[in-house]
Amino acid sequence: MAERKKLLLRLDPHVYDALARWAADDLRSVNAQIEYALRQALRAAGRPVRPSAEAEPEFRSPDDS
Asked: pTM higher than 0.85, yes or no?
């Protein structure tokens, strides 16, 4: 299993609060919600994540068919 990257992220408190509410609504942790939002943004920008053979499976949500 590939090691997960650690990242220090500074957010405006209002952005964090909105993100935390969104995460709670989707029954995710804030960390998982950030990764979910980044993956959505990457797909929308035409830069989908291409996991390597040893990478762990990407997060999936019920609406990601």
From this structure: no
Sign of CA dihedral 58, 6, 1, 31: negative
What is the Cβ-side half-sphere exposure of residue 23, based on CA atoms within 13 angstroms? 16
Residue 13 contacts residue 30 (beta carbons within 8 Å)? no
Whether residue 22 contacts residue 33, with contact meaning beta carbons closer than 8 Å, is answered with yes
3-state SS class at 32: helix
Per residue in 23-38, pLDDT (tens digit) is 999 999 999 999 999 9
Give the model confidence (pLDDT) of 2-60 as tens digits. 788 999 999 999 999 999 999 999 999 999 999 999 999 999 999 988 876 655 555 66
Domain ranges of the chain: 13-44
